[in-house]
Amino acid sequence: MRLFVAVNPPPLAKLELTDAAAPLRRLPGAGGLRWTEPAGWHLTLAFLGEVPADEVPALEHALARVAGEHPAHRLRLAGGGTFGQRALWAGVEGDVRDLRELAAAVQHALGATDEERGFHPHLTLARAGTTRRRGPGGPADLRAMAGALREFRGSEWPAGRIQLMRSETGYGPARYTAVEGWPLGT
Hints:
The protein has one domain (2-183): Cyclic Phosphodiesterase, Chain: A (Alpha-Beta Complex), CATH 3.90.1140.10. The protein is globular and about 50 Å long. By secondary structure, the protein is an alpha+beta fold. It is 25% helix and 32% strand. Helix 2 (56-69) runs antiparallel to helix 3. It contains 4 helices and 9 strands, in the order E-H-E-E-H-E-E-H-E-H-E-E-E. The chain has a 5-stranded antiparallel β-sheet with strand order 2-6-5-4-7, with helices on one face.
């Protein structure tokens, strides 16, 4: 199973971001991007990759322990940015320090620490397509799109749960399903 650990924003946060990002889909080059689906929007705390099914119970035990040791916190989706010309993302504000500490604890407990990239809380909105997928108007200007999100500030929401998620890739967008979840601070 291809697994990751995430915090999932509530429906209202996703709806607000959907509304804010809708005009971006009409900009030149936007048709050549691979847009992510709001149903799959999440904040990745740790990516685990392929994990044998018999190792999942140990992961679940470790995640339950970490969740109990960290308090719930308050977040909001806000602003935007890019990873070069590869990806467009929405940012996160609020108790980001707590979110970073939670991500570090999850990564440490699962042996998934990625010190090369570090933890940058974000929600991926779109990825650059191949040159064959580019729409009319040439490639999308991801920096301009991120700039259009600069003033976006969604409603604050309680981040009180982490989830072990399964990622299924193949034709079309990735599909994410919750394997298990744990409340924070219990």
